Automatic annotation (TrEMBL), chain A:
<feature type="domain" description="ABC transporter">
    <location>
        <begin position="5"/>
        <end position="232"/>
    </location>
</feature>
<comment type="similarity">
    <text>Belongs to the ABC transporter superfamily. Macrolide exporter (TC 3.A.1.122) family.</text>
</comment>
<dbReference type="GO" id="GO:0022857">
    <property type="term" value="F:transmembrane transporter activity"/>
</dbReference>
<keyword id="KW-0813">Transport</keyword>
<dbReference type="InterPro" id="IPR017871">
    <property type="entry name" value="ABC_transporter-like_CS"/>
</dbReference>
<dbReference type="GO" id="GO:0016887">
    <property type="term" value="F:ATP hydrolysis activity"/>
</dbReference>
<dbReference type="InterPro" id="IPR017911">
    <property type="entry name" value="MacB-like_ATP-bd"/>
</dbReference>
<dbReference type="GO" id="GO:1902495">
    <property type="term" value="C:transmembrane transporter complex"/>
</dbReference>
<dbReference type="GO" id="GO:0005524">
    <property type="term" value="F:ATP binding"/>
</dbReference>
UniProtKB/TrEMBL annotation, chain B:
<feature type="transmembrane region" description="Helical">
    <location>
        <begin position="718"/>
        <end position="745"/>
    </location>
</feature>
<feature type="transmembrane region" description="Helical">
    <location>
        <begin position="403"/>
        <end position="426"/>
    </location>
</feature>
<feature type="transmembrane region" description="Helical">
    <location>
        <begin position="28"/>
        <end position="49"/>
    </location>
</feature>
<keyword id="KW-1133">Transmembrane helix</keyword>
<dbReference type="InterPro" id="IPR003838">
    <property type="entry name" value="ABC3_permease_C"/>
</dbReference>
<feature type="transmembrane region" description="Helical">
    <location>
        <begin position="275"/>
        <end position="296"/>
    </location>
</feature>
<feature type="transmembrane region" description="Helical">
    <location>
        <begin position="432"/>
        <end position="458"/>
    </location>
</feature>
<feature type="transmembrane region" description="Helical">
    <location>
        <begin position="483"/>
        <end position="503"/>
    </location>
</feature>
<protein>
    <recommendedName>
        <fullName>ABC3 transporter permease C-terminal domain-containing protein</fullName>
    </recommendedName>
</protein>
Length: 232, 849
């Protein structure tokens, strides 16, 4: 199987106010394969989001190497990493929609940035797929939390990403809405054969993933694979 | 009740504590800087304007011989002088009259001035040091009279008189029945005013000798000038005391009235200085409003958290308002002090360039600047911060509960109120306040409509554009809530700067035009008709730039509409000079240059009055107004016994500042040609050409030559100062424009940072984001430039017409320069202000949001 993401001895260290080095991540080796769904678990402050940021090329490691689609990230500057990010999609806990753009414009934006000609048609298609075909002209503030997250999911999938990164995607939602978002995310992931990397502290949500990695004291441990229970 | 009061009192210590904490957080920096800069600008301009104005007034007072002059045809009540002295003022009388001065080898009509001890109160009388100095040697050293005056029996004369009488120092002359010895030659007299009374050469005698000359009899045409000097407040108080006691024949002159050229220059300069500092304050005010808005947005969470702990939002809002007031006081004091120091450094550095010593500033600018700071803060920052009182504690749970924008009525109402108060406070001029406020409101309203229209247009064309401009247009349109105030702020900066620069150029140009380097510096009067051609030829031979020779017929205005003139005019005009002396009349076929017809029509070039037909007359506007005359009124003139009657067919505005011969009454050709007449000419002599003066005097002994180059030089000196003040003001307006520019850019920075991070997360490179931003700022700049264009043309039109008395013409360079420079300046400032957008790691920004 082809690995989409690979890390070797990945480390991230920050210095605190007293000049003490704080090792958030140390010596992390992992491989994530195409089409897999992987959950990264850990308690609050364990460094889950930091790891996600590194894997997605949003942040730089202090040591070690990351390969995204066989391309090493450490040699790239911010411009290079930005180019790499055109191959990935994001879903955030706080949605991160642009308030002043309509649902359609929010979904169009990454397509336009990637130079896609049919940006409007593609964005519209994806909004219809997440069930918001009637609300494409609505602004984020006119949508509920669940609807906003659907827009974010449409935005993430519209660019046909190699890897989809989801950071606590249900963290801001009630359990019923959260469940519907999880269902949507996994269904689309399956249909599009996207690699999904999901950061969560919710063991329930993690159970939907094929693999589960746990971060503890800066180290990553792999748990035994479990049956995928997520169903559309 | 007691508890409530206690609660209120506790807010001040809380505000103090909070101020210290907020200060450390750095979020108050922008507000503080904007405020300090605003106050500093006001203080700096205030101090400099105050000092320059004092300097200019001091110099103007020197031109007049005192701070205040009372002119009267008769001696005034001695009590008035006593009153002035009781008020701590110096008071000195002078008496002027025309008299023949007879020497051994001829006589000459002279303007005699009798002066008393203390004369001149302001400025100095300069005398030629060496009595044997040759006439050609105009650059000789001069000595100040140092308060000395001609002793009894002595006369000091100017060189013209000496030449005309062919006399010398030590010679004797007769004025009336008294014999005087010529002891000194006057080089420069501070209070030498224009007017035909003083066109004759000067003799200066002691006041105590007047009676013995026997020249001044009851009914003689004399002019008393009482000069007063002292502290300005005392002068003003005395003026107020005097005003109701004046008779119609009295004229009270202050520096603004006595010298038309200096007066109108000072007046316009003062208006300009006011306008420029108001411009700077408006710019700073908007910067303060923007910084305060940003601060309030960033403090919503604090207030919400405090509110959830039981400190109600109104209480917290109240504490923040107090904090604001404390900050305002601190900033105002800092700003005023900085302004004062900068002003000291600035004037010290240019001290050598200044034509006069600048007196120290008064206390007024301190009060003005500190007061401005506090008013500015409350007017422009009060509304956004007050809005913190409305933060819902629910925001603790729901971050999306954004604070509603404060009501626009509140924001603009408060700001406008503060502005009107300030403009009126600075200018004490209701007309200026009215026009500026109206102009501003109209411009702002029109700008908002125009901007929204342009945005809508952009939205329509947007989708057809390539990716980067398309995204820029969309960002602009979808951010119209923040982009509108931003574009208006940018527009305001460009507009105020353009306006201040435009008026500066036109003011300077109008002064240049009025007093070109070759403005006439000599007048020749009493040229006899038979000398006409010789005199002109003599000047032309020396290649002297001269005016035409205007014929002058002297006549007394004897009747108006068939009634004796004095009976026909309103009571307050009965003592008008025009009724009591001979007027200079002339005839012309064409309208003199610099004259403007304001009603009626000028006659055709080939018009000749037929015998027996009604004679049309052209009347000067000021005289028409004073004597309440209009078109169709008939005027009769007694011209050496012959009565000529004509009808006013047009009224002319005359530019009295231009040092050209000007006339109250002009007739068409065919009426006055056969009357006894003399001719008048003005001309410019360069230093080189001055050599011809003695020859002229010898060749035309009856012609009086009046050298007005000293008056011209003094006026020019004042204009240099005024110009400097104007340049300084322009500089400071630019500076406050820059601050507003940065505040406006900063205002959208939080949003741009988050958007930039998100764009980059979605795959946009830094270069792409910069390029989108560039398009956005260029668009903002062009739109702002268009607004500024509209605003500056409209306001300039209103100001020119109503305040500066300048001709308005559309400035086509502005049509190109404003949108272009708008695009360049705003793009540069915008890109500089948002440079961090692509520098911060996206993850950091997204987490913070």
């Amino acid at each position: 199987m082809k690995s989409v993401i690979r890390t070797e001895q990945l480390a991230r260290t920050v210095t605190d106010a007293d000049g003490q080095a704080l090792h958030i991540l140390q010596g992390i080796d992992c491989q994530i394969y195409a089409g897999e769904s992987v959950a990264i678990l850990g308690s609050s402050g364990a460094g889950k989001s930091t790891l996600l940021g590194l894997l997605a090329g949003l942040d730089q490691s202090t040591d070690g190497e990351i390969w995204l689609n066989d391309q090493p990230l450490s040699g790239l500057n911010e411009e290079g990493r930005a180019r790499m990010r055109q191959q990935v999609g994001f879903v955030f806990q706080s949605f991160q929609l642009l308030e002043h753009l309509t649902a359609l414009e929010n979904v169009m934006l990454p397509l336009e940035l990637a130079g896609e000609k049919n940006y409007q048609a593609i964005a519209q298609k994806w909004l219809e797929r997440v069930g918001l075909g009637q609300r494409i002209k609505h602004y984020p503030r006119q949508l509920s939390g669940g609807e906003q997250q659907r827009v974010a999911i449409a935005r993430a999938f519209a660019g046909d990403p190699l890897v989809l990164f989801a950071d606590e995607p249900t963290g801001n939602l009630d359990s019923v809405t959260g469940q519907s978002i999880i269902d949507l995310l996994f269904t689309l992931n399956k249909e599009n054969q996207t690699t999904l990397i999901l950061v969560t502290h919710d063991a329930n949500l993690a159970r939907h993933c094929q693999r589960r990695l746990t971060l503890q004291d800066g180290l990553l441990h792999e748990e035994q694979a479990v049956a995928v229970t997520g169903e559309a | 009740m007691t508890q409530r009061i206690k609660h209120k009192v506790a807010r001040w210590p809380m505000a103090f504590k909070l101020l210290a904490r907020e200060w450390r957080s750095g979020d108050l920096n922008l507000l503080f800087i904007a405020l300090v800069l605003a106050v500093m600008t006001v203080a700096l301009t205030g101090f400099i304007a105050d000092r320059l104005q004092r300097g200019m007034e001091q110099q103007a007072a020197q031109l007049m011989g005192g701070d205040l002059v009372l002119r009267s045809p008769r001696e005034i009540d001695a009590q008035w002088l006593q009153e002035a002295r009781d008020r701590g003022l110096q008071a000195v009388p002078t008496l002027e009259f025309a008299s023949m001065v007879a020497g051994d080898s001829g006589f000459q009509l002279s303007a005699v001035k009798a002066v008393a001890s203390g004369y001149p109160l302001k400025g100095g009388l300069e005398l030629e040091k060496d009595p044997r100095t040759q006439l050609q040697d105009v650059s000789a050293d001069y000595a100040d009279s140092a308060g000395k005056l001609p002793a009894s029996g002595e006369v000091w004369v100017d060189r013209r008189l000496l030449t005309a009488l062919n006399a010398a120092i030590g010679g004797e002359v007769e004025i009336g029945q008294k014999l005087f010895t010529i002891t000194r030659i006057i080089h420069k007299e501070p209070d030498r005013s224009g007017g035909f009374m003083s066109l004759n050469p000067r003799s200066l005698i002691n006041f105590s000798d007047v009676a013995e000359t026997g020249v001044v009899q009851p009914g003689s045409r004399v002019r008393f000038r009482y000069m007063f000097a002292g502290d300005l407040p005392a002068i003003d108080a005395f003026k107020d005391w005097l005003a109701p006691r004046l008779k119609p024949s009295h004229r009270l002159l202050d520096i603004r009235e006595d010298r038309p050229s200096v007066g109108s220059a000072l007046d316009r300069a003062q208006r300009y200085l006011q306008l420029a500092s108001i411009g700077a304050v408006i710019l700073s005010g908007v910067a303060v409003a923007m910084a305060a808005g940003r601060f309030a947005r960033r403090r919503q969470d604090t207030v919400a958290v405090m509110a959830s702990f039981g400190f109600a939002a109104p209480v917290m809002g109240g504490i923040y308002l107090r904090l604001l007031l404390l900050l305002g006081i601190a900033a105002a004091l800092c700003g005023a002090l900085l302004g004062f120091i900068l002003q000291m450094i600035g004037t010290y550095m240019v001290a050598d360039l200044l034509p006069v010593h600048l007196p120290p500033a008064g206390w007024q600018p301190w009060g003005l600047s500190v007061g401005t700071g506090i008013l500015l803060l409350m007017g422009f920052a009060g509304a956004p911060l007050r809005q913190l009182r409305n933060v819902s504690p629910l925001r603790v749970f729901r971050r999306d509960l954004e604070l509603a924008s404060p009501s626009s009525v509140m924001v603009y109402g408060l700001a406008l109120f503060a502005l009107v108060v300030m403009i009126y406070w600075y200018s004490a001029d209701a007309r200026l306040t009215l026009w500026l406020t109206l102009g501003l409101v109209a411009v702002m309203g029109l700008s908002a409509i125009l901007t929204l229209g342009l945005f809508r247009l952009l939205k329509l064309v947007g989708p057809k554009l390539p990716m980067r401009p398309r995204l820029a247009v969309r960002s602009l349109y979808s951010h119209k809530q923040t982009a509108l105030p931003q574009v208006m702020a940018f527009g305001l900066v460009l507009m105020v700067v353009a306006l201040v620069a435009l008026i500066r150029n036109d003011l300077l140009a109008s002064w240049q035009q009025q007093l070109p380097q070759t403005a006439p510096n000599y007048f020749a009067i009493n040229i006899q008709p038979f000398e006409r051609q010789d005199f002109a030829a003599r000047l032309d031979q020396a290649a002297v730039k001269r005016s035409p020779l205007y014929p002058i017929v002297r006549g007394r205005l004897s009747g108006i509409n068939g009634q004796p003139a004095r009976d026909a005019v309103p009571d307050n005009a009965k003592e008008d000079n025009a009724l009591h002396r001979e007027l200079n009349l002339t005839w012309r076929s064409d309208l003199p240059e610099d004259n403007q017809i304001i009603s009626g029509r000028w006659w055709r070039d080939d018009f000749r009055v037929q015998p027996g037909a009604m004679i049309p007359l052209s009347l000067e506007a000021g005289m028409a107004e004073r004597l309440n005359l209009g078109l169709g009124d008939t005027l009769s003139f007694d011209l050496a016994g012959q009565i000529v009657t004509g009808e006013v067919t047009n009224i002319r505005q005359v530019n009295w500042d231009n040092f050209q011969p000007n006339f109250y009454v002009i007739a068409p050709p065919g009426v006055l040609e056969n009357m006894p007449q003399t001719l008048l000419a003005s001309f410019f002599l360069s230093d080189e050409q001055r050599r011809i003066v003695p020859d002229l005097v010898k060749a035309f002994p009856a012609v009086s030559l009046l050298d007005i180059s000293q008056i011209l030089a003094q006026v020019r000196q004042i204009l240099v100062q005024v110009t400097l003040a104007i340049e300084v003001m322009l500089g400071f307006t630019l500076l406050s424009g820059l601050v507003l520019l940065l505040a406006a850019v900063k205002n959208s920075l939080d949003e741009r940072l988050r958007e930039g991070a998100l764009y980059r997360t979605l795959g946009a490179s830094g270069a792409m984001i910069r390029s989108i931003q560039r398009y956005e700022f260029v668009l903002l700049g062009v739109v702002a430039g268009l607004l500024a264009l509209m605003g500056s043309e409209l306001t300039a039109y209103l100001l020119y017409r109503n305040l500066f008395d300048l001709d308005y013409s559309l400035s086509f360079t502005h049509w190109l320069v404003l949108p272009l420079s708008g695009a360049v300046i705003i793009t540069l400032a915008g890109l500089w202000g948002t440079r961090f957008v692509v520098r911060q790691p996206p993850l950091q920004v997204l987490r913070a949001g």
